């Protein structure tokens, strides 16, 4: 539903709220989310070409994706539940 130009929704559980929020964000920002994911994992050249290979190598060497996985593993159960579809 749209009220005053803004989307609104209702939910019974926190899980449902997070699911709806994720869907709305993805629907509006799928391209942006894809760029953020590729940027943080060193895979921009796959989308934009060879000009970004050096950046991809740099990001790959920093290990951001490994840090993200380690931090995710340290989260509590509620945080995991909120981040999973």
What do you see in this structure?
This protein has 85 residues and is mainly alpha-helical. The protein has one domain: Penicillin Amidohydrolase, domain 1, CATH 1.10.439.10. 69% of the residues lie in helices and 5% in strands. The protein is built from five helices and two strands. The chain has helices at residues 14-41, 45-48, 53-62, 64-73, 77-83; strands at residues 2-3, 6-7. The protein has a two-stranded antiparallel ribbon. Strand 1 and strand 2 form a beta hairpin. The protein is flat. The two termini are 22 Å apart.
Please count the beta strands (DSSP E, at least 2 residues each).
2
What is the count of DSSP helices, taking H or I runs of 4+ residues?
5
Looking at CATH, the homologous superfamily is: Penicillin Amidohydrolase, domain 1
As a percent range, the share of strand residues is: under 5%
Mean pLDDT: 87
User: Any idea of the CATH topology?
Assistant: Penicillin Amidohydrolase, domain 1
N/C terminus separation: 22 Å
Q: What is the CATH C level class, in words?
A: Mainly Alpha
**General form:** flat
- Gross CATH architecture: Orthogonal Bundle
Question: What is the helix content?
Answer: 55-70%
Low-confidence region ranges? none
Cα Rg: 17 Å
Overview in brief:
This protein has helices at 14-41, 45-48, 53-62, 64-73, 77-83; strands at residues 2-3, 6-7.
Provide the fold topology.
Layout: E1 2-3, E2 6-7, H1 14-41, H2 45-48, H3 53-62, H4 64-73, H5 77-83
Antiparallel strand pairs: 1-2
